Amino acid sequence: MAKKIIVNITPEETRMAVFENEEFIEVSIERTRSGHNVGNIYKGKTKNVLPGMQAAFIDIGREKNAFLYIGDTLPQVAAQAIADSALTVGKDVMIQIVKDAIGTKGPRATTHLTLPGRYVVLMPTVDYIATSRRIANEEERVRLKQIVEKVRPEGMGVIVRTMSEGKSEEDLQKDIEYLYNLWKALIARGKRATAPILLYRDVDLVIRIVRDYLSDDVEEFVLDHQEAYGRVCDLLKYASPELVSRVRLYQGKEDIFTHYGLDEELNKLGQRSVWLKCGGYIVIDKTEALTVIDVNTGKFVGSINLSDTVFQTNLEAASEIVRQIRLRDIGGIIIVDFIDMDKEEQKQAVVAALEEKFKRDRTKTNVLGFTGLGLVEITRKKARQNVEGVLYSECPCCEGRGRVQSPETVVINIWRKMRHVMSQSRRQGRIVIQVHPLVAEIIKSQGELPRMEQELACSLRIESLAEMHPEMFSLLHEGE
After folding, report:
1. Where does the pLDDT of residue 276 fall: very low under 50, low under 70, confident under 90, or very high at 90 and above?
2. Taking the model in full, what pTM does it have?
3. What is the pLDDT of residues 442-451, one digit of tens each?
4. Are the beta carbons of 412 and 460 closer than 8 angstroms?
5. Rounded to whole angstroms, how far apart are CA atoms 262 and 22?
6. In the chain, pLDDT over 90 holds for what percent of residues?
7. Residue 175 burial by CB count (10 A; 0-12/13-18/19+): exposed, middle or buried?
8. CB of 476 within 8 A of CB of 434?
9. For position 81, what pLDDT does the model report?
10. Per-residue pLDDT band at 303 (split at 50, 70, 90)
11. Delimiting residues of CATH 3.30.420.60 domain(s) in the chain
């Protein structure tokens, strides 16, 4: 599977796009001002403890306190916290952010600290070895585990990353030694520092790309920034010199995302409907914790029979659904309403297609299969604000509903309000009704103005204002 990574760097933001076999499948955007908090380690101060919820709020020196669920901490820490109230208001605690602040919710934290390297993740607070599920070869898994067992710091845990496949003992040892020294420096700083304070900041997006994405299956890594290009090459010369030749500096005058046709693709991420090549389409509707995806045949009528048409549409939809979930970085519970299929083997084939596509997804995802209602349930880990959350904000007109009141509804509301106003006091002169142009057009087309003037015994004038909110209206009195 051939991969290509495109990176655009400006003073305002860094954007990354990932292609698999020439298909755009992943995008990440990091704004300079808002930054990135997942992975950061803080020495925080406990502001509030909620024993009934086994949780606490920790001041980390940012706008919102971090939420620490004691059940997510190490078992012995959780037991101690519950038994003797070790976590009390005012107590300092070292935590790591595992989920960015999203919407009104603050960041989520854990006391289970991890330090990621290129080949391993060091876990200073636990004592076990885990291996990436993406390393399929059992002999290689055993080899890597034996190496790590030999070189890891005593009493510390290690996760063997996919990048370590085929690497030597020296490569893994250098990575572990670097992370161990980083941990010692972090602990020393933590003892001296006064909470709340940031002790460790995860690297920026460019370096995270090298650490987390740049593997042997990446054929090309293209950046458009000279300084970042130099940093990447210097890092690779030390960590993976065989990959330096795959890094390329883009020097074209055209924006790099425009050059690779990514601007149009990014614009599509805000669309509710996504068309399939066969002529069918999917519809994506989201709430904060739940996403519902509906599959429709659309223009696809097939060439054999209805059952085959439905099955082929669902298969293509399964592939596109996985792509859209990865592109939009949709997390939480996902429900997919495929077109009804009669044959059990067709249902299993669709589920298998989803599972196969999700194998390439870096984010932990579970396909739970068809529910009793014939819907496919998927769960996907949610750690950061997704791309839609970065690119878009809530609509000031519909306030997140996805729709506004129809002009006809607004007109009825106006007449209702007018009747109430005139019943309170009869006013001399003319009343001006300020409305959105679409509402003004409905009032004129219905020819209701003369009738309302007669009913209310007053003179009315409609004023159209383009800047008016579609649901809003104003009633102004013009005296004689």
Report:
1. very high
2. 0.79
3. 998 888 889 8
4. no
5. 12
6. 66
7. buried
8. yes
9. 41
10. low
11. 3-35+204-263
Choose among 219, 218, 243: nearest CA to 233: 243
Peptide bond into 196 cis (omega under 30): yes
Q: What is the topology classification, in CATH, of domain 407-478?
A: Hypothetical Protein Ychn; Chain: A, (3.40.1260)
Give pLDDT tens digits for 178-192.
Answer: 999 999 999 999 999
- pLDDT confidence of 74, banded at 50, 70, 90? very low
Closest CA to 64 of 43, 41, 47, 51: 47
How many Cβ atoms sit within 10 Å of the Cβ of residue 282?
24
Amino acid type, 238: Y
Q: Is the pLDDT of residue 427 over 90?
A: no
Average pLDDT over residues 100-108: 83
CATH number at 41-110: 2.40.50.140
Return the structure tokens found at 333: 């519970």
Nearest to 439 by CA among 464, 457, 422: 464
Which segments of the chain belong to CATH 3.40.1260.20?
407-478
Angstrom CA distances, 290 to 27, 30, 245, stand at 21, 24, 43
Q: What is the mean pLDDT of residues 322-347?
A: 94
Backbone angles phi, psi at 49, to 5 degrees: -120, 130
Mean pLDDT across the chain, nearest whole number?
A: 89
Domain 3-35+204-263, second-level architecture: 2-Layer Sandwich (3.30)
The Cα–Cα gap between 268 and 23 comes to 15
Residue 230's pLDDT is what? 94
CATH architecture, domain defined by 115-200: 2-Layer Sandwich (3.30)
**Residue entry with tokens 């990574």:** 5
In this structure, are residues 168 and 146 in contact, taking their beta carbons and an 8 Å threshold?
A: no
pLDDT at 84 over 50: no
Q: Closest by alpha carbon to 386, among 325, 430, 445, 334?
A: 325
Name the burial class of residue 423, with classes exposed (0-12), middle (13-18) and buried (19+) by CB atoms within 10 angstroms of its CB: exposed
